[in-house]
Amino acid sequence: MKKNDTFVVTIEDMGVNGEGIGKYDGMTFFIKDAVVGDEILAGVTKLKKGYGYARVIEVLTPSDRRVEPACSVARQCGGCQMQTLRYDVQLALKERKVRDNLKRIGGFSDGLLQQVMEPIVGMDEPFRYRNKAQFPVGYDKNGEIVFGFYAARSHQVIPVSDCLLGVEENALILARIKEYMQQCHVKPYDETTGKGLLRHVLIRKGFHSGELMVCLVVNGKELPQEDVLIASLQKIEGMHSISLNVNTENTNRILGDEVRLLWGEPCITDSICRVREEQTGGGNFASTEESVSFEISPKSFYQVNPVQTEKLYSLALEYAGLSGEEIVWDLYCGIGTISLFLAKAAKQVYGVEIVPEAIQDARRNARNNHMDNVTFYVGKAEEVVPAWVESRDVGEERTSPDVIVVDPPRKGCDEMCLQTMVQVAPKRIVYVSCDSATLSRDLKYLVEHGYELNRVRPVDQFCHSMHVETVCLLSKKS
Ligand code: SAH
Predict the structure, then answer these.
(1) Distances (CA, A) of 51 to 30, 32, 177, 396
(2) Which of 15, 22, 70, 478 is most buried, by CB atoms within 10 Å?
(3) Chain centre distance of CA 418
(4) 170/191 Cα distance (integer angstroms)
(5) Which atom of ligand 1 approaches the CA of 381 most closely?
(6) What pLDDT, on a 0 to 100 scale, did the predictor assign at position 97?
(7) In the chain, pLDDT over 70 holds for what percent of residues?
(8) What gap in Å lies between CA 94 and CA 36, rounded to an integer?
(9) Which residues, other chains included, contact 369 with Cβ-Cβ below 8 Å and sequence gap of 6+?
(10) Is any ligand 1 atom within 6 A of the Cβ of residue 355?
(11) Comparing C-alpha atoms, which of 263, 175, 281 is closest to residue 226?
């Protein structure tokens, strides 16, 4: 076979990146946009030894698991990989991905996984879930200003002003910005020439508060006739903050360092709620809602799917099993989202995070929520916590946690960090992970060093992509 050859194939499975998998002529093909159960006409795009890549030329017999994508640019845009796959099948696929990694990398048996794995937590409504969007600005073929998203693996702007993962207000805000650009002759930034002014538009919305934030990323210190822009945007219901971010560098980084407030408040506020179900006897449950508020600036990190974040963190807290007496470490704590919930139910929480700005936000959020039993430290978890343990000065309370919660980035925990966790021997470890492969590797280490795996639950935070979050509970073997 050679490139551009065509063949008819039935898709037998789905790959870890959401692509269809089919076999032809003794070779395995990975086929983007094909769905398990489809019979398709495929065209070879790349050949390797024993396997290859192909594209869908025509769907000959559609699978019963295929759906019409809700978004008209689902195929071109790099944002969604699986919009053509029924949502329940997406969920099953993610659950299987977590189970397979736990088995293959973690070495856990089918029998154990059967016992400890709970069903994936999906979304009730898998659209309009993102509270943040960053739209690049460019021109289309006709020289018209467009906002959109980058195509997969490229910087070509695919026009989408109303991404169905984002909030409805995005389209209105972008339309107003386009009007302003036309009226005041503001050109989109061109990364090849370095000319033009407007690079990106960042929009955030607090789902509980309804507050909106717009930040225009500009290749310069200012925009012409800023008052015209402000007058138009401030009228939008919920508008709370309009700012300008200066980014004059030739870089892939979206935001520069300097933010200048144009109108309104520098931050929006939002809250994360946790619903706690408690048995009150006689088979009855009482549910109490606790909420923690967060200030969000254009540059702060904040979870992008607030609905699922509440479910994810509620699970992490349930797994932590706090009674009010515990000393807790929250490693990789970011802006302290998990720490602040833990602090409501624990004696003392110590949070560690590498990004100094995130710790500033965490401390401010703790103050705003009147919590004085949480302390945050800047640094690498694998350096900060071993130093506590080695030092005689920090006191026994800090070095003997009852519960450790970790929520590391994709690469997982550093071995030094795992080693220290095992050394301080907490009763429980709650592991929140965005990569089930590194999670499995780290769980293997922990079970080889005195812990047992009790509960595992995947949570779908990023519908239509193959990303999946997982929460696990481990306890110290007696
Ligand atoms: N639970 C956090 C988010 C965790 S995301 C929240 O809700 O805000 C993972 C975090 O780990 C990021 O904030 C990242 O900056 C931080 N991080 C990455 N490497 C780290 C390291 N070596 N030590 C400590 N924190 C680290």
Answers:
(1) 8, 14, 47, 57
(2) 22
(3) 23
(4) 24
(5) 23
(6) 95
(7) 100
(8) 14
(9) 292, 293, 340
(10) yes
(11) 263
CA of 139 to the centre of ligand 1 (A): 36
The CB of 201 under 6 Å from ligand 1? The reply is no
Start-to-end CA span in the chain (Å): 59
Beta bridge partners of 456: 117, 472
The first and second tokens of residue 386, run together, are 């071993």
pLDDT of 9 reads: 98
How many residues would you count in the chain?
A: 478
Q: Are the C-beta atoms of residues 355 and 368 closer than 8 Å to each other?
A: no
**Residue 434 among the catalytic residues:** yes
Residue nearest to atom 7 of ligand 1 (CA): 337
Of the given ranges (45-54, 260-269, 281-290, 437-446), which has the lowest mean pLDDT? Answer: 281-290
User: Ligand 1 center to residue 34 CA distance, Å?
Assistant: 35
- Gap from CA of 355 to ligand 1 centroid (Å): 8
pLDDT > 90 in the chain, percent: 85
Query: What is the residue with the minimal CA distance to atom 3 of ligand 1?
Result: 334
Per DSSP, the three-state class of 138 is strand
Per-residue pLDDT at 446 exceeds 90? yes
Ligand 1 within 6 A of CB of 332? yes
**pLDDT tens-digit series, residues 167-188:** 999 999 999 999 999 999 999 9
The arithmetic mean of pLDDT across residues 54-60, rounded, is 97
Q: Which of 353, 365, 406, 419 to mutate to test the pocket of ligand 1 (most atoms within 8 A of CB)?
A: 353
pTM of the model as a whole: 0.92
Q: How far is the CA of 407 from the centre of ligand 1 (A)?
A: 7
Mean residue pLDDT across the chain: 94
Residue 136 tokens, joined? 């690049």
Tell me the per-residue pLDDT of 249-267, one tens digit each, with 9 for 90 and over: 999 999 999 999 999 999 9
Is 409's C-beta closer than 6 angstroms to any atom of ligand 1? Answer: yes
The type of residue at 246 is: V
pLDDT one-digit tens code per residue, 386-410: 999 999 788 889 999 999 999 999 9
Contact between 469 and 97 under an 8 Å Cβ cutoff? The reply is no
Tokens representing residue 467 in the block:
């990303």
Q: How far is the CA of 398 from the centre of ligand 1 (A)?
A: 20
Q: Does 413 have pLDDT greater than 90?
A: yes
Q: Which two tokens stand for residue 111?
A: 């029998």
> Of 241 and 152, which is predicted with more confidence?
241
Cβ neighbourhood burial of 446 (10 Å; 0-12, 13-18, 19+): buried
CB contact burial 305-344 (16+ within 10 A = b; e otherwise)? bbbbbbbbbbbbbbbbebeeebbbbbbbbbbbbbbbbbbb
